[in-house]
Amino acid sequence: MAKASSLIGLVAAACVFLLPEVRAYPPAVGILAENRSCMSCHVSNGPWTDEENTVVDILDAKTKTSLREEAGSFLIEVRRNEARTVLTVIGRPKGEASPPRRNAWLYVDPTQLKSSALSKFAPGWDVNLPMSCRIVGDVVEGYEDGYVTALPMTVRPGDAARDAELELQVMLTTGESLKGEAKEGLISNYLLRRVLLRVRE
Ligand code: HEC
pLDDT tens-digit profile of 11-61? Predict the structure, then answer.
């Protein structure tokens, strides 16, 4: 049976494998127990506790406009069977004295955590990269002098897709984890954002 935590735990593995300077860890890192979020294993012990200054934005990849709504959630609206690419931007603004070194994130549909399906994204939606990890230093329109990561994600609502609500689980980090130790060495702050997926007919 696929454990609910598999996808979440995989972020650690994905992160490790995407980093050239790090030793190769076994891919099963962190996927052994039922875990609801990054905070099941990690701690929020970093210096970036002033959440209002932390950058978590989702931009339309073409127009570079933010998909943030007034309530603070994000709305990704897509015509059925068409693809739309968004940019996930995470980091700290210009002037930050101790910038994060790398950020990791995961888009997950919490209603799918208990299902045995491999994908924990919204059912019926294709997605190419619902989780990743990246070294700070990307240049993004509007955040040019900040310390951010930015990576595209393409979603496409298929015939079975319905409106859905996702969590965007984010960790800004610096330092290095000790092998097998989520709480040692890594300095991080955890943030959560609501992301609404809407199908247009
Ligand atoms: C089931 C436990 C577990 C969960 C859940 C988990 N992690 Fe981890 N994570 C670990 C462990 C253990 C390590 C230490 C690396 C190792 O043992 O190889 C780690 C390491 C990391 C690292 C640092 C890798 C390095 O080389 O220093 C990042 C970044 C990370 N996790 C991000 C996340 C994010 C983001 C989430 C949530 C979306 C998450 N993790 C959820 C267990 C977990």
Answer: 666 665 554 444 333 333 333 336 778 888 899 999 999 999 999 999 999
> What is the reported pLDDT for 25?
36
CB 10 within 8 A of CB 28: no
Fold held by 24-200: Immunoglobulin-like (2.60.40)
pTM over 0.85: yes
Q: Would you say the CB of residue 7 lies under 6 angstroms from ligand 1?
A: no
Q: Is 56 in the pocket of ligand 1 (CB under 6 A)?
A: no
Q: How far apart are CA 38 and CA 78, in angstroms?
A: 28
Which of 3, 5, 7, 15 is the best mutation target for the ligand 1 pocket, counting ligand atoms within 8 Å of the beta carbon and taking the most?
15
